[in-house]
Design goal:
heterodimer, A: 332 residues, alpha/beta, Rossmann fold, 2 domains, 7-stranded parallel sheet, 9 helices, 18 strands, elongated, B: 266 residues, 9-stranded mixed sheet, two-stranded antiparallel ribbon, 29% strand, globular
Chain lengths: 332, 266
């Protein structure tokens, strides 16, 4: 019988706030903990993060571990891995969940190698096997063409979870929990990396992750110029502009606009895919949109398999007509 | 500057989605007929990152691949792009590993190669999309790792790396040796030149077996796996797309607007 017990989530803090992925992990961790009949804890690592403990408890945690140190102001592999190693060895959780973010992608593998256990990245479903009580971890593979269910015998079982697939709990300010401080025990002289500068490349307007409407363009748009027409429609619909990886790689749109497996995962009500063929890797980013509408000149394009409505035609003719009709409708 | 780049031969991720098939009895992917494998595109960009440093500062680039049935025309691509050496870990004992057994074998081979300043990997392989092997190699070798790099400059025993963050990027300085994983934002990998292709044809790769790198056979391939795949399946996408047709673009647009209004989407 393993000495490891309980479920722990890594609560990512973004600009001094508990991130939405942290709340989603608390929601999904709560279910796993109750299936195991165990407690749910959260770890908050950073500088000045102690004030978020109560919100973390309200969002589902029974215990919150705080590691607060000025050296932890920015995420660095060299500082966060030893901190998480220390926390995990002290708390000994059976399951550790992190977000599939730029931090989680970096932290989870190195932590799992250091602890001599394993990790499954980018999970879209997690469940406890009723017989073995082990964690069943489902992740998309082969660019989203297939999904695999992983399991393993070592503890802790580490998994990163894709954004927006798990539901957060309704926050309950009356929930009670315990707050425990853990010392970072860092030796600055051993740190071989230094963050020199942080650069924000945020697109103006509504963030893709928060947008209810996204007008997205792909290779078929043919250049940066075409995206201006997408932006015009997005503005009319109070939405944001997204792009497929080929469109970003060609420099037509900034990387921060990329929707897909290696970009943003979005969940708008309305996703309009213009000139996007619908590779599995793109669909991985938008398939949870409520309604996908596709405009593509190729009737065989894969995007039509994911779409609710489709128009087969040249976007250069269809899109201006559509924008005009939407404007007329909204003017009424 | 000595650089080692880990490159994986994978099923072509650009193969049409319709040709993708899973054998559910073995939990393995059936390679699409007539579509040759490729070097994982992120790994090609890792080669590109190393070659850019070689172009600017000089140095040696060694490509390292692990697998079975490695097609020479495929795994020699780094050579034709400009890499200097190719080392293959090719043996049945290396087959069907996971991130743990693969990182272990690659780290053992890197120890044997010995002299390195930077080890490059792609951000993730285009087949299992895990993105763990790079960090794992760094952990085994006890060197710093920087993931998701889009630009790398070297000098004075250090690398200055631009790595992706959620809302942009950060500039991080690292003492070498270090491991760096490369993301597609680095830009397109170069095409092989005719001269490169000819040189690659003449160059024979070095092939190492587990014993050559001093690998514990219990830690490589299937034997070294920590994870089990209990099911591999293709999610069913319900095709219920309603194609909206019409006499002209205005007509089609009007019909779509009406549909979306009725469904309360706009």
């Amino acid at each position: 019988m393993s000495d490891y017990k309980g479920v722990m989530i890594y609560g990512e803090v973004t600009e001094g706030k508990l991130s939405s992925i942290a709340k989603e992990l608390l929601g999904c961790g709560r279910k796993i903990a109750s299936d195991l009949g165990q407690q749910l804890s959260a770890v908050l690592v950073g500088s000045g993060v102690g004030g978020l403990a109560q919100e973390t408890i309200a969002s589902g945690a029974d215990k919150v571990y705080i590691v607060d140190n000025p050296l932890l102001k920015d995420y660095q592999t060299e500082t966060y891995v030893p901190v998480m190693e220390k926390v995990v060895k002290q708390v000994m959780p059976q399951v550790v969940l992190l977000g599939q973010t730029t931090i989680g992608r970096d932290l989870a593998p190195r932590l799992s190698f250091r602890l001599g256990t394993a990790a499954t990245m980018d999970c879209v479903a997690l469940a406890i096997d009723p017989a073995s009580k082990r964690l069943l971890q489902t992740k998309p593979v082969f660019g989203g063409n297939a999904q695999a269910i992983f399991t393993y015998d070592s503890d802790p079982q580490i998994a990163t979870v894709r954004a927006k697939v798990m539901s957060p709990m309704e926050p309950d300010a009356s929930r009670k929990g315990e707050v425990i401080t853990i010392d970072a025990s860092l030796d600055p002289s051993t740190i071989k990396t230094k963050v020199l500068q942080q650069v924000k490349e945020e697109v103006t307007g509504i963030k893709l992750e928060d947008a209810a409407v996204i007008v997205s363009g792909g290779r078929g748009i043919g250049g940066a110029e075409g995206f201006k027409q997408l932006a015009e429609l997005a503005e009319v619909l109070k939405g944001a502009v997204g792009a497929s990886r080929p469109a970003c790689d060609s420099g037509w749109m900034p990387e921060t606009a990329q929707v897909g497996l290696t970009g943003k995962i979005v969940t708008p009500n309305f996703y309009l895919a213009v000139g996007i063929s619908g590779s599995s890797q793109h669909l991985a980013g938008c398939s949870n949109a409520k309604t996908i509408v596709a405009i593509n000149k190729d009737p065989e394009a894969n995007i039509f398999k994911a779409a609710r409505y489709g128009i087969v035609g040249d976007w250069k003719q269809v899109l201006p007509a559509f924008t005009k009709k939407v404007k007329e409708l909204l003017a009424k | 500057m000595n650089m080692i780049v880990c490159c994986k031969q994978v099923i072509d991720p650009e193969a049409p989605p319709a040709s993708f098939k899973v054998d559910s009895s073995t939990n393995k992917v059936v390679p699409p007929p007539g579509v040759p494998p490729v070097i994982s595109p992120f790994d090609e960009q890792a080669i590109e990152a190393a070659l850019r440093i070689k172009d600017a500062k000089g140095g040696k680039v060694t490509a390292l691949s692990l697998g079975t049935k490695l097609l020479r025309d495929v795994v020699k691509k780094p050579l034709s792009m400009g890499a200097d050496e190719l080392v293959l870990l090719e043996d049945d004992a290396f087959a069907d590993g996971d991130s743990w057994s693969t990182a272990y074998a690659l780290a053992m081979a890197i120890k044997k190669i010995g002299d390195y300043d930077i080890i490059f990997c792609g951000r993730q392989a285009a087949d299992w999309d895990t993105g763990q092997v790079g960090s794992g190699i760094a952990e085994i070798l006890g060197i710093p790792s920087l993931t998701l790099a889009k630009k790398i400059e070297v000098g004075d025993g250090k690398a200055r790396v631009e790595r992706l963050t959620a809302d942009g990027y950060e500039v991080v300085e690292v003492n070498l040796p270090a491991l760096i994983t490369v993301t597609n934002e680095l830009g397109e990998a170069r095409y092989p030149t005719i001269k490169g292709i000819m040189a690659a044809k003449r160059k024979e790769p070095v092939v190492w077996k587990p014993a050559d790198i001093g690998a514990d056979t219990a830690k490589i391939g299937t034997a070294g796996r920590r994870t089990k795949v209990i099911k591999l399946f293709q999610p069913v996408i319900e095709s219920k797309c309603e194609i909206i047709g019409g006499d002209n673009p205005e007509d089609v647009a009007a019909k779509l607007v009406l549909k979306l209004r009725e469904a309360k989407i706009i």
